[in-house]
Design brief:
seven-stranded mixed beta sheet, 24% helix, eight-stranded mixed beta sheet, 10 helices, 373 residues, single chain, alpha/beta, globular
């Protein structure tokens, strides 16, 4: 072999080595967990690139679902994710996510890491097992739920643009997560002996407040969750108390950033002697349309006539706390009027809600009891 050919082959080997270098970084489970913790405040985007069926059996809390096997993976990723913010991807074993990481870096995502060993290694490290699945509906059975890193129960629904995750905080406090964005409903710091440290939770992109009662409105919680650009939506009384935010009254509609549509709907008591708790026209319930899914957060209300106008609801949160909101019988009437696909009884205090699934067993509504006491 002449000297020229040797030099040419050596050059090709050097070039091939350079070209084979990954533009993303592989991390083991411990490194991956540390990376998530270190980058939460930097807008980390955690992405599950498995199938919806795999995702339904368990995933890493906070992850959005974008199936890398789908032909439009790159387009969906570019639509749902921010190229400037860090991205962490995982699949079952690490192979598909390596492919996803390569695609993302080729599309211009600046910082991408991949979990080696995938969800299999992660779940083994975190001592988690797959959840039971109803084989006919692919829904979590009512007795099964995952938990997030704060120990709060979570439920997830799939949309054409990713996963929406519902985090059960407590009572009337809910966190809704979608596409790396966090929405808080009525966050409060303390209820009796229970308390929440919101400084450790993801900052809010949006906060919705239904009314001024202390188990719904907490200025300290709003402050702890706020960052630059946080949007706060309230009824007028709470907007006056807080001194900022978007005030909405019953019947108002608004379109926020990220394509979130908001409708403020009535929430009040209509039983004689209870009107003083929540007078008509003062408080809000909200209907949020997120990624095509309509989510009804009723606030403190009874089974009022206006519920007949609440239509096409995918997920409903209905209160059950007599005498301030609804009795179980009122809640059942409300649910049959609204006909949501999924129902979370919330704000139930000492009211017994364990009978509600049986009371609604022939309604076609998926009733999920979570720790909203």
């Amino acid at each position: 072999m002449n000297r020229f050919i040797k030099l040419l082959l050596a050059g090709l080997c050097i070039s091939g080595t350079a070209c084979s270098q990954k533009a993303y970084k592989d991390l083991n489970v411990q490194e991956f967990d540390a990376y998530i913790a270190e980058n939460k405040d930097k807008g980390l985007q955690l992405v599950d690139v498995r199938t919806a069926e795999e995702n339904a059996q368990g995933t890493i809390p906070g992850a959005v679902l974008i199936d890398v096997k789908q032909n439009d993976f790159a387009q969906r990723a570019e639509k749902m994710l921010d190229k400037e913010r860090p991205v962490a991807v995982f699949c079952r074993s690490g192979r598909r996510s390596a492919n996803a990481a390569t695609i993302l870096t080729e599309k211009g995502f600046k910082t991408v890491v991949n979990l080696t060993g995938g969800f299999t290694a992660w779940s083994k490290s975190h001592h988690q097992t797959p959840k039971l699945i109803n084989s006919q509906t692919h829904k979590l059975t009512n007795s099964q739920t995952t938990k997030d890193e704060f120990g709060m129960e979570t439920d997830r629904i799939e949309t054409n643009n990713g996963t929406i995750v519902f985090h059960c905080i407590k009572h009337a406090s809910v966190r809704i997560e979608m596409g790396g964005k966090n929405i808080y409903i009525d966050p409060v710091t303390r209820l009796g002996n229970w308390s929440a440290d919101y400084s450790k939770m993801p900052k809010a992109d949006y906060i919705f407040i239904t009314h001024e009662h202390g188990d719904h409105y907490d200025a300290a919680a709003i402050e702890a969750l706020s960052k630059e650009g946080t949007v706060v939506v309230l009824n007028k009384r709470c907007a006056d108390m807080l001194g900022r935010g978007i005030a909405m009254k019953n019947g108002d509609k608004n379109t926020l950033d990220d394509g979130i549509n908001v409708e403020a709907v009535p929430a009040y008591n209509n039983t004689a002697g209870r009107e003083k708790f929540h007078p008509k026209g003062r408080d809000n319930g909200y209907i949020l349309t997120i990624n095509g899914k309509r989510i009804y957060l009723a606030g403190d209300t009874e089974d009022i006539d206006e519920m007949a106008q609440v239509k096409n609801i995918d997920v409903a949160f209905l209160p059950c706390n007599q005498p301030y909101t609804m009795t179980p019988e009122q809640l059942v009437r409300s649910a049959k009027t609204i006909k949501p696909k999924i129902l979370f009884p919330y704000h139930y205090g000492d009211t017994k809600v364990s009978d509600l699934p049986d009371m609604l067993k022939d309604s076609g509504i998926d009733v999920r009891i979570r720790n909203y006491q």
